[in-house]
Design brief:
The protein has six helices and three strands. It has helices at 5-28, 45-61, 63-72, 79-86, 90-102, 119-138; strands at residues 77-78, 106-109, 114-117. The longest helix has 24 residues, at 5-28. The relative contact order is 0.15.
Length: 141
């Protein structure tokens, strides 16, 4: 089973659009009498996308964060359960989740005090687990 990188890319592109929209709303909020600057940030879209993809990979690459992602692959998980999986206190889990939310891999449910994977998070876990399965089959022993 292969994971199409375009799936991860499309979902991260949606996250990038959300970030761009939030930045535009923030820019439109006037702190003084001068008009807000509008339009594009002038940056290279490929460089921006690359930065977001690498940030997502970096966030997922940390072992305790990946343990949380792996656990969430089965569905939404309450924070106390993520604390048990990682051995971290609730506030530390909360902060790790903030990083995973920021890069578009996780969504948080405040009503149920839990979190779950976004489609990008699911695609990334499938990619990692597929690579692990392939590598495990190649290892002697």
């Amino acid at each position: 089973m292969g994971v199409d990188p375009a799936v991860l890319g499309k979902v991260l592109a949606a996250r990038l659009a959300d970030i761009r929209a939030a930045a535009a709303r923030y820019d439109a909020f006037a702190f003084d009498e001068r008009p807000a600057t509008g339009g594009s940030d002038g940056g290279d879209p490929a460089a921006t996308a690359r930065d977001l993809v690498l940030a997502a990979l970096g966030a997922a690459a940390e072992p305790l964060s990946y343990a949380m992602l792996h656990r969430m692959a089965g569905g939404d998980v309450p924070l106390p359960e993520l604390s048990a999986v990682t051995g971290l206190p609730r506030l530390a889990v909360w902060e790790r989740l903030n990083g995973l939310v920021a890069v578009g891999l996780v969504g948080r449910s405040h009503e149920h005090d839990g979190a779950g994977l976004t489609p990008a998070g699911r695609a990334l876990v499938e990619l990692v687990e597929g690579a692990v399965a392939a590598a495990s089959g190649e290892l002697p022993g």
